[in-house]
Amino acid sequence: MFVARRMKKTIVTVPPSASLLEAQGRMRGYNIRQVPVVSEDGTLLGIVSDRDIRAAVLPAGLVPGFTAEEAEKFMKSTPVERVMTRKVITATLNDTLEDAIVLLHDFRVNALPVVDAAGKIAGIITRTDVLEAFIEALGVGEVSSRLEVVVPDRPGTLAQLAAIIGSFHVNITSVLTTRHVEEGKRANFFRVATLNIGPIRKAIEEGGFEILDPTRLTFP
Known about the structure:
Helices cover 35% and strands 23% of the residues. With 220 residues, the chain is α+β, with helices and mostly antiparallel strands. The chain has a four-stranded antiparallel sheet, with helices on one face. It has a three-stranded mixed sheet with strand order 3-4-5. A two-stranded antiparallel sheet has the order 1-2. A hairpin with a 5-residue loop joins strand 7 (172-179) and strand 8 (185-192). The radius of gyration is 25 Å and the shape is elongated.
């Protein structure tokens, strides 16, 4: 899954000369929390968020006698280039969604402008876009059943499980594998295109694998 296929290509932007009031109006009008700041040729110069605008207005608001009218005047006269973030965390057209989710998490941002090789903005991808992509990839919402199987951490176990499930002529719509809490084991999460999961569970257990059943879990 690549960023280029999931990003929004219709982008709301502002020029560096736009006022804070204009930027705020665009964000409110499109129900977004940040807008990229771009030059006339589309080069990404920065990004301004609703938080940046609040932070810029707050110090002025602490001045005694500062009125709502003065706040609006301040926002009208202050260009976004004075408060925008210039070191923007970006994604590229070649990045994967895994790359994007790491950037969103590590830098605690809500959106990533996507730039091409020339540094021009090509799109934007948000936390919601990435989340929706993974929900789709995991098959959540489809008519299916979920299996969680604990296996020894050695080559071939995933293929064995797939063969058991395949023997029932049922499609595996998604699979996820991760380390288990027990050393030397992995947890495999399958979503299979059937609601008749009982016979498959039985066959997997008869094959010597452990199926985790949330109804049997005990907690300290």
